[in-house]
Amino acid sequence: MALCYRLTITLINIIFPPFAVILLTGFGMDTLINCLLFLAAVLPSHIHGFYISCTYFARRRRVRKGRYPGGPKSFIVSDDVLNGGAPPDEVRRLARRAERGGARSRSRAGRRRGSGRGGVWEKGDVAGGGGGYY
């Protein structure tokens, strides 16, 4: 269902970007900006529409995973897009949890993945593009 919604928004954005922005944000400042961009030149309207839809779906995914969606973004005014479609009280709860450290996000580089060798490199392991002992 979510994939169909995302594909529908993408197809509408290709054909007529202001309508895609209306579906995501409602009638507001983002829609007005996109309509003005569409009247000025079609390409900036498409870029703005895809920017709004990508931000919305990325933040929606974060909220569904129980993480804070993030703060304000440039050129986006709608709270619905900034919150990923979540109600404001849910976003406040996630923000408080993130401040307390309950939703710590570890960077991918900080995670240890491997076969459980305790960080010991063996001959043939690849690090930095080459093989051998490191």
UniProtKB/TrEMBL annotation:
Indicate the segments annotated as coiled coil, or none if absent.
Answer: none
Keyword match Transmembrane helix: yes
Q: Enumerate the transmembrane spans.
A: 7-25, 31-58
| Region feature (Disordered) | 95-123
What Pfam families does UniProt report for this protein, alphabetically? Pmp3 (PF01679)
Question: Sorted alphabetically, which keywords does the UniProt record give?
Answer: Membrane, Transmembrane, Transmembrane helix
Residue ranges annotated as compositionally biased, kind Basic residues, are 103-115
Show the InterPro entries listed in the entry: PMP3 (IPR000612)
Q: Where does this protein reside within or beyond the cell?
A: Membrane
Family of the protein in this entry: Belongs to the UPF0057 (PMP3) family.
Identification of the protein by name: Plasma membrane proteolipid 3
Q: Which organism is it from?
A: Phyllosticta capitalensis
